[in-house]
Amino acid sequence: MLESLDLDVSLPKEGYKEAFSPLKDRIVEQQRAIVEAERPVLIVFEGMEASGKGDSIRQVVAPLDPRGFKVHLMNSVLTDDERLWPKLRRHWLRTPKRGEIAIYDRSWYMETIMERVDGNMTDSEWSTWIDEVKQFERQLIDGGTILIKFWLHISKKEQRNRFKTREKSAYEGWRVGKDEWKRNKQFVHYIDAADNIIVETDTPYAPWTLVPSTDRRYRRVIVMRTIIETLARALETPPATTAFVNHVPTPYEIRGSEEGTLLDKTNTSVEISRDQYREELDQYQMRLRQLEFGCYAKRLPVILVYEGWDAAGKGGNINRLTQKLDPRGYNVIPISAPQGEEATKHYLWRFWRHAPKAGHFAIFDRSWYGRVMVERIEGFCREDEWKRAYYEINEFERHLADFGTVIVKFWLHISKEEQLRRFEERENNPRKRYKLTEEDWRNREKWDDYNIAVSEMIERTNTNYAPWVIVEGDCKLYARIKTLKTLVHMLEERLKSAN
Amino acid sequence: MLESLDLDVSLPKEGYKEAFSPLKDRIVEQQRAIVEAERPVLIVFEGMEASGKGDSIRQVVAPLDPRGFKVHLMNSVLTDDERLWPKLRRHWLRTPKRGEIAIYDRSWYMETIMERVDGNMTDSEWSTWIDEVKQFERQLIDGGTILIKFWLHISKKEQRNRFKTREKSAYEGWRVGKDEWKRNKQFVHYIDAADNIIVETDTPYAPWTLVPSTDRRYRRVIVMRTIIETLARALETPPATTAFVNHVPTPYEIRGSEEGTLLDKTNTSVEISRDQYREELDQYQMRLRQLEFGCYAKRLPVILVYEGWDAAGKGGNINRLTQKLDPRGYNVIPISAPQGEEATKHYLWRFWRHAPKAGHFAIFDRSWYGRVMVERIEGFCREDEWKRAYYEINEFERHLADFGTVIVKFWLHISKEEQLRRFEERENNPRKRYKLTEEDWRNREKWDDYNIAVSEMIERTNTNYAPWVIVEGDCKLYARIKTLKTLVHMLEERLKSAN
Q1: Which one of A246, A265, A464 has the shortest CB-CB distance to B196?
Q2: In this predicted model, what pLDDT tens digit does every residue of A41-80 receive, in sequence order?
Q3: Which of A325, B156, B242, B278 gets the most CB atoms within 10 Å of its CB?
Q4: Is the pLDDT of residue B7 over 70?
Q5: Helix and strand element counts for chain A (H, E)
Q6: Alpha carbon of A329: minimum distance to chain B alpha carbons (Å)
Q7: pLDDT tens by residue, B99-110
Q8: Which residue from B141, B209, B390 is facing A244, i.e. has the nearest CB?
Q9: Chain B residues with beta carbon closer than 8 angstroms to that of A244
Q10: Is the torsion defined by CA of B471, B475, B478, B480 positive or negative?
Q11: Is B43:B33 a contact under the CB 8 Å cutoff?
């Protein structure tokens, strides 16, 4: 596509000011409209060096209210620190909140193009990454983000000329070095890779705008007008909902829970003796500590997800699991309803934030699965949102797993009777009473709804790269040993094959 | 996901008839509604052998009007003949027309799972194929198809029991042989691959319904109810349109054609002498004939697309190109407005039909690009449809190219003045008059619109796997040599690297 771009288009000097000036007023209006509509906006500027990204961004933001936008300079070669996390994370972290405009000076594209041309990215890695980029963009857009992608394009010769001019400039001379000249020589290879990824990611939901950037005036006007028009059109329609996703009923919408759900079939009352517990607890805790060092040495990140009924014993279970671990190696992240900044962003944003870095454990006490449990049942999100979430969650975990993350998800399962027993015990014990809230009782009334939602969740998100483990929990001792044992075995397996 | 499926669910015998009977009436109503709404419906049944696909299909179609459905038995191991075309073609050809229900007994999934487990499908092939499957399903759904995918699931043990029962049956004994028992032994490998592809293709627009199929009654009711519910919900909304695609204006919607389009910049008046023409024509035609044999020997399929202005000389050009070819090796496919069956199917269907088989040439005189030219300009399709088409076309060509197809697309370009000259010549020449219609004059009035649409089309669909070549056509002799020469060079290159 880049090859066919007419790079000779230009705008005459006369009349330019008159043409550009009203665009500034219009973009200011659009910014206000965005704030009012609470829509996040993400604008990506990509292109080879000296193609005018910096100037474009300056032109766009000049008229804007600076409290409403953020410019992010994304280095194309990842720092050592950034390499400790899955690649998308740094891009996710900078995604705009509602009503905000985030402008990316380079993005998830150039880093890939560079790695493809300079590094040793295999065909398979290249296409997996393109897949993940498409999923990322689709998730943002499904979440209401308005995404605009520009590729500013110049010819090899034009780049050379601009480098030469820069070299002579007192202010900009430092920006042209050996690397820049080397890339100019290999210009065609970068453009080949760029063209390839542009074709693949020119999706109906996130199309590219290719901008011939030889002429500065022309580029400025096109960029400005494209942003203005895109925002205007996007604001005409509410945050996009994919109509399809509501068409197909979920299995439990069809079969109900009469024949018993996945959870109903689990016998929650398995027990072990206190003696056996003491012995095994010690043994597995010690082993886990060794494995924690193993993961650190091999740079394996580990994610544990704890979900379960109220009073199922998540807290105590996590305590026993971490008791002998080196505390520098793990984080426990308690999750409740999103607050503050979290509430202004895509629901997955805060989980990307807490993704563990290579060699570390992240233990989530409740998690992103809230989307398909409490948010579904309480109506905190729309039907299309929770239905889509199964898919988004599988993609999210897949991205982490592709980076090498070990993921285990525990559902702590107790019977309805056992829950009642524990609620009553808490009520009658002054030291435990604080643990029991009105909400717990209200949730209990919705046991059947949760029963269905959880069974459906486990069925749809139990993958070989991020398996669910149902932990029979009426006997807390048994449950603690089972989670420890499961984790120990999984890590042993993974460390065996790690190199 | 399959692992977590509760395979023990069942329905009691008593009450079953009363539960199932009304479903038959409802599906009959839905069939009528489908016909009325002119929606194509595609239902996929997948699962291991003896999982109840045949019985499910029988149950579903029993109450239906047989004129309104077709059942397609899709073999999982491709025949030698089927291997001469890209894999998706046989599935595309059977897609339902509007108002029709197509039921696939196995589909594009099991062939892949088998190849993955039994054959030597690399990771990269596996993920490319999954990508293409997702694109295929998205294209169908964007085109209005209601797609329902079932995976009927049984355990390895259950399968063994069923095989044993079958072996004893006089009617079904032949259906269990060595291969079946071998696959039963390797059951877990197939399920692993199945689970993997199910997770990847469980998209918001085409989710899977996993059906525990141990109990026959249970399976029947679930399948029937899922179909009925899905159709009911899908019919509530018009054929889905992706809202996003209209948000972002195309480059020419922004810049207009004032500064001149890609086409305007082409000098159409390059010439060659008649002597040079004769010499080169002969030389390149002979060379092309050799290359035709070369392509046949190497089993390379070749697609040529001819597009261009009215009276640009497509017919004469194609004539000269094919003049010395072995006519068994090529087909010329003239494309006009879709008629009859073509008009009842997805717009890409007829082009899949005419895709060349390995070793053959398909020469399209006009093509799928009508979508983004005449259909766009005349309003024969919606804005979201032609905007989405750029993407769909790139995907379509990519699939063909991945199969090894050589694709070249010619735009025969003449100036507006040259077109007028030719129109007048036709008008004044009684033998050529039939070639000129009122429509040609009407199209000419829309020259500017076409100018933009064509420039945009070339910009967005010029890929390295299916490049556009603009052929300067005021001098017909020059144009003929250029197409021949271009093709000869491309085939020489490709045959060099073919093995």
Answers
A1: A464
A2: 999 999 999 999 999 999 999 999 988 999 999 998 888 8
A3: B242
A4: yes
A5: 19, 10
A6: 31
A7: 999 999 999 999
A8: B141
A9: 141, 204-206, 240
A10: positive
A11: no
Q: Measured between CA atoms, how close is A262 to chain B, in angstroms?
A: 6
Q: Which residue has the tokens 């193609």?
A: A51
Which residue of A lies nearest to B232 if distances are taken between CA atoms?
A247
Tell me, letter by letter, the H, E, C secondary structure of B323-368: CCCCHHHEEEEECCCCCHHHHHCCCCHHHHHCCCCCCCEEEEECCH
Could you tell me which residues come within 8 angstroms of residue B381 by beta carbon, excluding any fewer than 6 positions away?
B347, B371, B375, B389
Residue A235 with chain B: CB contacts under 8 Å: none
Cα dihedral sign, B376-B379-B384-B385: negative
> Are residues B265 and A6, on separate chains, in Cβ contact within 8 Å?
yes
State the average pLDDT over residues B331-341.
91
ipTM above 0.90, yes or no: no
Q: Which residues lie closer than 8 Å to B188 by C-beta, 6 or more apart?
A: B156
Q: What is the mean pLDDT of chain A?
A: 92
Size of interface A-B (CB pairs under 8 A): 184
pLDDT tens profile B249-298: 887 888 776 778 889 888 898 999 999 999 999 999 999 999 999 999 99
- Give the whole-angstrom CA distance, residue B168 versus residue B213: 21
CB contact set of A424 (below 8 Å; sequence gap of 6+)? none
| B493 band by pLDDT with thresholds 50, 70 and 90 | very high
Q: Write the residue in A1, A230, A260 that is nearest to B247 by C-beta.
A: A230
| Count of helices and strands (H, E) across chain B | 19, 10
Mean pLDDT of A460-467: 94
Distance from CA of A456 to the nearest CA of B (A): 10
Q: Is the separation of the CB atoms in B467 and B479 below 8 Å?
A: no
Q: Which of A124, A248, A462 is facing B4, going by the closest CB pair?
A: A462
Cβ B311 vs Cβ B414: under 8 Å: yes
**Which tens digit of pLDDT belongs to each residue from B459-473?**
999 999 999 999 999
Cβ-based neighbour number of residue A214 at 10 Å: 21
Q: What is the mean pLDDT of residues B290-319?
A: 95
Phi (first) and psi of residue B467, to 5 degrees:
-75, 150
The H or E element spanning position A493 is: helix A476-497
**Best of B244, B454, B461 to mutate (most A CBs within 10 Å, chain A):** B244
**Which residue, chain included where needed, has tokens 């925002």?**
A231
Mean pLDDT value across residues A103-112: 96
Cβ(B106)–Cβ(B74) below 8 Å: yes
d(CA A372, CA B261): 50
| Per-residue pLDDT, A249 | 80
CB-CB under 8 Å, B146 with A247: yes
Looking at beta carbons, which residues of chain A come within 8 Å of B199? 394, 398, 463
Does the pLDDT at position A243 exceed 60? Answer: no
Which residues of chain A lie closer than 8 angstroms to B259, CB-CB? 9-11, 218
Tell me: the pLDDT tens digits for A208-223? 999 999 999 999 999 9
Q: Is the dihedral of CA B468, B473, B476, B479 positive or negative?
A: negative
pLDDT greater than 80 at residue B248: no
- Containing B72, the helix (H) or strand (E) segment is strand B69-73
Cα B479–Cα B485–Cα B487 angle in degrees, nearest 5: 105
The two structure tokens encoding residue B215: 């109990």
Chain segment A342-377, per-residue pLDDT in tens: 999 999 999 999 999 999 999 999 999 999 999 999
DSSP β-bridge partners for residue A333:
A364
Contacts B237 to A, Cβ<8 Å: 243, 247
**Residue B356 to chain A, least CA–CA distance (Å):** 24
Nearest CB to B209; choose among A1, A229, A251: A251
Q: For residues A86 and A129, give the distance between their C-alpha atoms in angstroms, rounded to a whole number.
A: 11
